[in-house]
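Protein: Protein kinase
Species: Nonomuraea salmonea
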Amino acid sequence: MPDLAPLRPGDPAEAGAYRLTGRLGEGGQGIVYLATGPDGTQAAVKLLRADLAGDAEASERFVREVAMARRVAQFCTAQVIETGLAGGRPYIVSEYIDGHTLSDVVREQGPRTGAALHRLAVGTVTALVAIHQAGIVHRDFKPSNVVLAPDGPRVIDFGIAKALDLASTLTGTVVGTPSYMAPEQLDEEGPGPKSDMFAWAGTLLFAASGRPPFGQDGVAAVVHRILHAEPDVTCIDDPALRALVADCLAKDPDTRPSAAEALMRLLGHARPQTPDLLQEGSTASRNPARGRRIGWAAAAGVLALAATGTLVAVRLSGPPPRTVTSTPSAAALTAPATPATRSYTLPGTSVRISERDGDPLKLASYTLDGGERLYVRKHDTGEFARETRYFEYALDPRTNLALATDVDYSTDLFATVSIVDHATGARRVVKLSPKPVYPATPRWSPDGERALVTLYKGEGGAAQAYGFGVIDVATGRGEVFQVGEQGAGEWRFFWDAGGRAVGTWTGGAMTFYGLDGKVQRTLKDVGTPVWVEGDDVSPSGGRFLAHCTAAGTALCAHSTSGGATGAVTVPVAAERLIGWWDDDHLAVWRAKDGGYEAVVVDMRGRAGRVLATARDKAEFDTMGFRFSRPTA
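Structure follows.
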C-alpha cells in the first residue's frame, strides 16, 4: 500500500457515505483519501481543490460530468463508484487500487523492458478501449494516472480533465500535463480519443526510457517539440511495439490508430486499414495535411506551469494564429480499404438500409403506420420480423435486454413496460401508470441501470403530455412523475449526461429534472426543438441538439451543463434526425428526390455516407426508427 498519512486539521471526516481514514496523496487537482464504505470495503476519495471547483453551479456541473465515468467497463480501470459534494466541494469515490503509480515505479526501479513493457501496453490500451467505448476521452493520460496493481496496470482519473475544463473558474483555460499533451490539445480543435493515443504512446516511452518523451526543460520548449519534433522511440526494443508507438505519436490525429486498433496490433493482428467515415463525401475531410491553428498563448510565450506539473495555458485574443502545415507521407495519402456494405429493404416498406461492420449505430426496430405495426431485429439472424406484443422496442446491446411498451394493459388497468431478454423473448412486466396515462419512447440510462419513458394522458381521443416515468431495471420497480410545466414531454424526455437527470423542452427552453421530478436547471435561448429519434445527447454526454433558429436552417449543439461553452453550429437543414453518430458527426434525414435519405455529416455540415433511402415520402412520414449503439 502507498504511504498513508493521517488526516490533518480541516480535513473532512466523511464524503457522502464514506468515512475518511487517511491521506493517500495530494496533487494539482486535490487531495486523495483512503476511505471505508458502508459495507466495510476500502475506496479512494478524491476531494477537488476549492479554487478549481468554482461556484455552486460549477461544482454541480463537475459532478454531473464525472458521473459519466461510471459507464466505463471495470477491466483495467479503477471503477468510479459515485460522485457528490462535500462542503460544497466535489468529490469522486473510486475503487481503491493497492499499488504504486507507473511514474513512481520507474523512478524507483528503472525503465520497463521486454514482456513487462508489452504487458503494460496491453493493459493500458485495453483500459482506453473501455473508456472510449463509454463515450469518454481521458484527456490527461500520463504515468501518474497508471497504477501498477498486483493483477495488472489500472488507469485512473479518466474524464476528470474535461470536468475541470467545464467547472474551473479559470475561464478560457485548458488543463493538462505538458509532456503528454497531443498537438490538437494546443489549439482550438481540442482533444478527442486519438489525443489519448498520443498520450498513451508518450507514457510507454517514459516507461521504456525513464524520461518524458518531449523533455521537461520548460513549458515553451516542451510545447515546441510536441508541435514540431519527433521523439526518440529507439528505447523500445520490440519492432512491432516501436512502430505502433511511432504511429500513435503522429502530429495529425486522423492518422493515429484508435485504441481498439492498437490493441489488435498488440495482440499480433496485422495493421488494419481503417475506413474513412466521410470518404464518400468531401475530399477535404480526408486531407492528412490539414492546417492546424495554434490558438494558445504558447505562440506569444505566455505560459504558466503550476508546481504540480499541470499546465494552465490561457487563450488570448490578439493577432491571427499562424498555420502550421505538415507534409503528408505517401502512406498517409493512400486511400484506406472500405469494408463491405450490406444493403437491404425493410420488410413491409420501400426503405433501403446500408450497413457496415463497425458502424456506431445499427437499426434495432422500426414502426409503420404511425406506430400501428412494429418490426424488431432478431437476435440470431439479424432479420426483421413483425412483433405484435409491443408498441416500441429499445435494445441495449451491452446487456441484450430491451425496453418495450406493452400493447395490453394489466388486469387492473395499469399501463406496463416489459424488460425483454432479446435472445429468448422472456420478459418481466413492470406496472407503471394507471389508465389513461401511458408510456412511450422508452430509453436506457447511460449505465443501463434505469429505463426512462415519456408519459401521456389519453383523453377524448387526444393525448396530452403528462410527465415521465423511471424504472429500476434490477428491481423492476417504476415511479411516475407528473410535470406541470407547459409543454413538458411534448418533445419527449431523454437522459442527461451521467443518467442522474432527464431533459425535455418546456416553453421554448431546455429544462432538466432530477430523478425526484424536481427542476434542476433551465437553459434558455438554446434554439427550438428538433425531432431526434436516437441520441439527443452526444456519446460523451456534453451536448444536446436543437434548431439554431425557428427557421430550421441549421442545427446547434449546445452544452448540457449550460456553461460558457459556446454552441457548435452545424449548417444542415433537417427536420428529423437519427441523432449522434459519434461525438464529431450526426446522422440526419434530409430531402432527396421527393423522398428522404439518411446521411452522416460532420460538424461543418459536410455529408458523407448514405445510411438509408426512403423514396416514398408519405410512407416515411408514418414510420419511426430506433437505432442502438452496439458495443465493440
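Remarks: Residues 370 and 622 are 5 Å apart (CA to CA).
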